[in-house]
Structure formats: C-alpha cells, structure tokens
Design a protein that fits this description.
about 500 residues, mainly beta, Immunoglobulin-like, 5-stranded mixed β-sheet, about 5% helix, binds CU-O-CU linkage, binds copper (II) ion
Length: about 500
C-alpha cells in the first residue's frame, strides 16, 4: 500500500497548513510546471488530424449495446518516426470512440492487460455509484499475482463490466482512468477516449454532421530521449516529484494523438467537439486569421449537452476535462487559405494547437438554429442547502499536496450528504487554478466572483474552470442514484495528491 493512501485510510493524515515553497507557475494561464522534450520535435502542421476509431458493439439486444475494450500497452507513433510506448484502450490513443443512444443501456467490458491496476470512469455519465469508477474499485491486471485483499475497494480481477444506463440527453462524454493516486500518470500514458451520447432531438437539428462533425481531444505531452512519454513520477509512488506538484505541462500539443496536426476542411460549417484531456494545461482557443465576417466560434453545447441557444465567442478558454461543442464556419475564407487554431495561453510551440487548410467551396445545408434545446434553469428554492468547498494547497500525510476545506481525500470519509432531487447551492473557491468536477449530475453556474456567470459558463456543466482566488456558485441537483460519488479538482496532479472529496446521495 502506498504511503499516502495508507496514512489517509487510517486517519493519520495531517490537517492542512499554509506554507510556501511551491515553485511558481511557469506558464501563464495554467497552474503547473512545464516539461521539456528531449527528442527533436516536428515542425507543426506536418501530419493530418487523426480521427479516433468508432467502436462497434459486440452484441446488441432490445435494450442494451455491449462493448469490449482491452486496456493494453502498445508502441505507437505519436511523433512522426518516433516510437512511444503507451497504455491505450485497445492499444490506441485516444481510445476508440463509443457512440451510445440516449436511454439505451451501454455495457463496456474492460479487460486489463496492462501492468497496473486500473479504474474506468465515464466522465459526464449519469451513472450508478458501483459503475462510476470509484478510485479504489480496481480492475487488477489479468494474471496479477498480488493479492489486494486488504484493499477497501470493490476489486475485479482481469476485467469488469461497466454498466451505463445513459438516461441523459445527447452530450460529449469521455472515459478515462481514475485509479486512486495514479490518475495523472495513467491518463498521461494514454488511457482516455470519447464517449458520445446521441438522441433524436439533437439529430433533428440541422447542425453539421457526418464528416463535418469532428471530436478534438487536446492533450499536451513531453517526450524523453528514447521516445517514451516523460512524466515526473516518484518511482512507483503516488504523486509527482516536488517540482511538479502544481501540475504537469508538456511542450507538445497533441490533437487526437497527433502533434499540431492539419485538417483539410471545405469552405463550410463544421462541428468540433473540443475536449481538454490534458492533465493540467488550459487553452485559450482563437482562430488566426479570424473569419472575415461572423464570430470565430459559435458554441452550441457545453459539458453535459446542448445549450438552449448558441453563444458566439472569439476566444474559448478550455480547462482540463471541459468540453465545448463549437461550430466554425469556414465559408468566409478563400480556397487555399490556412487558418491556425491558436492557444493564447501558450507561448512558442504551445501557442499553436492545429491548422485548418480550406480546400474548396461545397454546398452546405447545415445551419445553427437559434433554439437548440430545452435547458430549464435550476432555481434554488429559498432555504436551499448551501455548502462550501475551498480548494487549496495543504498538507497530505505530512507532504505537500492539495486539499478541499483543509482535508485531503480519504476514501472512507463522507463530506456531504445531499438529498436526491433537491437543488443545492455549492460555493467553490480557489487559491490557484482548479478545474472543479462533480460526478453524477450536471450543474449550472449561478455566479462568478459575485457577478453573473461568464459567457463560457453557459449551459449544463460538470466541470467549472476556476482561476486563482475565484469564487463560483453553482446550482446542482443530484438524481436517481444513491451512493458515494466524487467532487474533485481535474488538474490530475492535484487530484492524485488528494484534492478530492466524497458526497453520498441519500
Ligand atoms: Cu474526469 Cu472524476 O473525473
Ligand atoms: Cu466525472
Ligand atoms: Cu487543482
């Protein structure tokens, strides 16, 4: 058992204290420390944008689609000409995309043929607790000789069936590893993929579809001299070296696993489902040059589904785990024009994300309707339960780490007990950047720093981006499933270094 987990479990973890000694943020706009690759890096825009494969079910019946995914090591080419060992769902990064119908049960059997225990979480899924990927509900590798019987989780050996009811509207979800203390390194090694939910209401809209509906998974990485992924782990222990407590930032921006790729686009509307799957990096997305007329981005969806009406942006800031469903209209550009997707929160190499090459004019029947979906406002009643969650540095078992309300995560402690069906108001505050994620049910942002929510806070959210010293109030209503769920920082190094808390729905 790892030292910190052990301390946490037997309740010896120290309370928080304020202290100095953290190294400063080396990257504006993100809390984290930047790694430098030791391999020569490619020129940007030299490789085509890959599209993750769409997974086929192994079986379907009247109510359910069944899938099988094998988590395994693989050598892949992320950088051209460089072999990189990863852990991948089906051995690829990003993992295969699963596409579910709203309300149809999806069962995914995950086989663990890696060298480490794993946990799968469907991020944004409205999922019963036993299938939500509790951090100690390990799936042990096939043939793992070790006995983990002292472990407090629900242990599976070799494989586990994750059952997802998916009684929720169309949305861009994603699945990723969630192993206690090791989510950062295991996602970094490649364990992340898209899971889309579709429904008839969304399909009835004239949005760009088919080849013009594209998922974009943004993830930064750094590479060691031998081509392997560089991550500042402390041997096989939890967490990172002290220099990287604030978060791990890479110097290569991968989109769907390719460095600064290029996509040929017709001069027409495209729908991009943008996911920031980075451990710690935030992106400020802009188009260079911007379209001559009209906004760069028309946002149609947020984390948990469509907005009620579209919102226009010139810059879209995306924190780890957030999703933005964006329509870009390339019809204002001329054929042959190159349009760079930039990151205003990066510099040099990390200031670029990918490039679009506008090829030809095509007929475009798509449009963005002025009304997209029903998004009823969650209005907290007078006397609604209010809770506060302060995200800050703190001591974790005597080591520097990250805490919520002064306490490091303890998988056996419950910090809040909301009632199913009731709207509560949660006030979240920060010291540094913390993208805060709540499991089970989506929420709506009520205020940011005492002001109305920003235009990037619109719609159903499951992750909210807080910058240093911010306070956000959200309205949340948990429904359907009783049990223990997580609230945590989605900077994965913060998460691994104890910035999680448990709520138990009643
Ligand atoms: Cu995407 Cu609890 O995580
Ligand atoms: Cu989640
Ligand atoms: Cu954090």
């Amino acid at each position: 058992m790892k030292r910190r987990r052990f301390l946490g479990l037997i309740g010896l973890a120290a309370g928080s204290a304020t202290f100095g000694g953290f190294t400063g943020c080396s990257v504006p706009g993100s809390t984290g420390e930047a790694l430098t690759s030791d391999v020569p890096l490619p020129e940007p825009f030299g490789v085509p944008l890959p599209i993750p494969p769409v997974k086929r079910p192994v079986r379907r019946d009247a109510t359910t689609d069944w899938y099988e995914i094998v988590q395994r090591p693989a050598d892949v080419e992320l950088l051209p000409g460089v072999r990189t060992p990863i852990l991948g769902y089906d051995g690829v990064f990003p993992g295969p995309t699963i596409e579910s119908r709203s309300g149809r049960r999806t069962v995914v059997r995950h086989h663990n043929r890696t060298d480490v225990p794993t946990v799968v979480h469907l991020h944004g899924g409205h999922t019963p607790a036993t299938h939500d990927g509790w951090p100690t509900d390990l799936v042990l590798p096939t043939g793992d000789p070790h006995h983990h019987d002292h472990h407090p989780g629900r242990i599976a050996r070799g494989h586990r069936d994750y059952v997802y009811p998916l009684a929720q509207p169309a949305a861009t979800l994603w699945y990723h590893d969630h192993r206690m203390d090791f989510t950062g390194p295991q996602v970094y090694r490649g364990l992340a993929g898209f899971h889309l939910v579709r429904d008839p209401a969304e399909e009835a809209l004239p949005l760009p579809a088919g080849e013009r509906e594209i998922p974009l998974m943004l993830a930064d990485r750094a590479f060691a001299a031998d081509g392997s992924l560089k991550y500042p782990a402390v041997g096989h222990e939890a967490g990172t070296t002290d220099d990287f407590l604030e978060g791990v930032l890479g110097d290569v921006v991968l989109v769907n696993g390719a460095p600064w790729p290029e996509l040929e686009v017709a001069a027409a509307r495209y729908r991009f489902r943008v996911l920031n799957a980075s451990n710690a990096r935030r992106y400020g997305l802009t188009l260079d040059p911007p379209p001559p007329d009209g906004p760069a981005f028309v946002q149609i969806g947020s984390d948990a589904g469509l907005l009620d009406k579209p919102v226009e942006h010139t810059t879209v800031t995306v924190a780890p785990a957030e999703r933005f469903d964006l329509v870009v209209d390339f019809s204002g550009y001329r054929a042959g024009q190159l349009v760079t997707l930039r990151n205003t929160l990066g510099a040099g190499r990390t200031g670029r994300v990918m490039r679009f090459r506008v090829t030809r004019r095509v007929r475009d029947d798509s449009s963005v309707p002025t009304r997209l979906a029903d998004v009823p406002a969650l209005v907290p009643p007078a006397g609604a339960v209010r809770r506060r969650f302060a995200f800050s540095r703190g001591l974790v078992g005597g080591r520097k780490g990250w805490v919520i309300n002064g306490r490091p995560f303890d998988p056996l402690r419950v910090d809040a007990a909301p009632r199913l069906g009731e709207i509560e108001v949660w006030t979240i505050s920060t010291d540094l950047h913390h993208p805060v994620h709540i499991h089970l049910s989506p929420f709506q942002v009520l205020s940011r720093n005492g002001h109305p929510p920003g235009n990037l806070d619109t719609g159903w959210k499951d992750t909210v981006d807080l910058r240093p010293a911010e306070t956000v109030e959200v309205a949340v209503r948990f429904t359907d499933y009783r049990g223990r769920f997580l609230l945590h920082c989605h900077n994965l190094e913060h998460e691994d270094m104890a910035m999680m808390s448990t709520f138990e729905t009643k």
